[in-house]
Amino acid sequence: MSAELIELSNALVQATDHAAASVVAIHTEARGSSSGVIWREGVIVTAEHALRRDEEIQVTLPNGRVVDATLAGRDPSTDLAILKCADADGSSAGRGDAAAIKPGSITLVVGRTRASGPVAALGVVSLVVSERQTWTGSSLAPYIRLDVGLQPTAAGGAVVDTHGTVVGIASPRFARFGAIAIPAATVDRVAETLLKKGRIPRGYLGVALQPVRLPDQLRQSLQHKEETAAIILEVEADGPAHKAGIMIGDILVSLAGQPVSRPENVQSHLQAENIGKSLTAKIVRGGAVRDVSISVGDRANGAE
Known about the structure:
Blueprint: H1 3-20, E1 23-27, E2 34-40, E3 43-47, E4 57-60, E5 66-75, E6 80-84, E7 106-113, E8 117-129, E9 132-133, E10 139-140, E11 143-147, E12 158-160, E13 166-171, E14 179-183, H2 184-197, E15 203-204, E16 207-213, H3 216-222, E17 228-235, H4 240-243, E18 251-255, E19 258-259, H5 263-267, E20 278-285, E21 288-295, E22 297-298
């Protein structure tokens, strides 16, 4: 083996060992485990989808001890869950700059298993977008997609850059192939809110939507550039849309002055800062166009 390959191999081992000092295994089912990262003293971050229950949670610390942890809160829209664990007082993760990551950068995903200890997967960054809206309505900035074989046990583990610092949390949820790195800035924001409030405030309208093709004549009269809008398939009783007079069969063309061509366009208006605000919705009902004012509700007090 050449000296360069030996040097690379040794560097990867060192980076794995360094990151593993802040990575835990999380046990919420009889078999198998997922991973988490000691984000700061007493606080562990993991992938929400991999946390199978809210109670009787145990973690294996980097020193091998198995201790209890409690759930501080979940945020499915970013696939993050926050655990409180008084025994998680070891090395917290050193943060890297996710904004400096470029396509082609080498990354490691470092996790931990219940019995075998640290696990590592080597890959490259396949895509970086400055910001992307996920199908759950959350914004990830930057959106970092990884070309890496992510084992279930490593979900929630640390994504490590070439400097050996953690740039995010590994999750397969928002990538059709491989995984993504939920950036450290997003983790910080979600962790702070969940530790304070136990939940992430999310707005909702109380409707089910589906894309629908608009006739060319209607598109031209509405000056709607997209070929589709969103038809209302369901209206929740006493929800914000119901109170605003929205009906099943209405076609939503725009919201807050922005065109709607698919349901994801609506999600971008339902961030916490818009809860309680009135948004103008332009709808088509029976061929007639009308404007309706909808007050964004708090999802904690209603359904989807």
